[in-house]
Amino acid sequence: MIGYPEAPRAWGFTRGMARTVGVSLTNAVVDGWLSRNELGNLVEACRMCGATGQCTDWLARTVQADALPTFCPNANALAALRP
C-alpha cells in the first residue's frame, strides 16, 4: 500500500486531484510510470502549496475533469500521467 502517514492531508489531496483526471497514483508507481521518489515530490509540492482552501472546494465539487485547476502545483505532472 502506498501512502504518506507523515503528510496524510497532502497525500489525500494529491491522490484526489489525480483521480479526477483518471490517474491512479498507485498504479502509476506499480507500472513504472512514476517512481516512489517522484510521487513523494508530488506529495511534498502539495504539502507546501498555499491553496488548501481552493483545493478542498474544487475537490468537493469535482468528480471528473479534463484538466486540473491552475492553482495546483502538480497539474502538469498529473496531466502527463493521464491514460
Polypeptide structure, described:
The chain is mostly helical and 83 residues long. Helix content is 58%, strand content 0%. The protein contains 5 helices and no strands. Helix 1 crosses helix 3 (36-48). The longest helix has 13 residues, at 8-20. It is globular and about 30 Å long. The two termini are 21 Å apart. The mean pLDDT is 93.
As a percent range, the share of strand residues is under 5%
Rg result: 12 Å
Tally of DSSP β-strands: 0
**Termini separation (Å)?**
21 Å
Low-pLDDT sequence parts: none
Structural class: mainly alpha
Summarize the structure.
This protein has five helices and no strands.
What's the topology here?
Layout: H1 8-20, H2 25-30, H3 36-48, H4 52-61, H5 75-80
Name the features.
83 residues, mainly alpha, 5 helices, 58% helix, globular
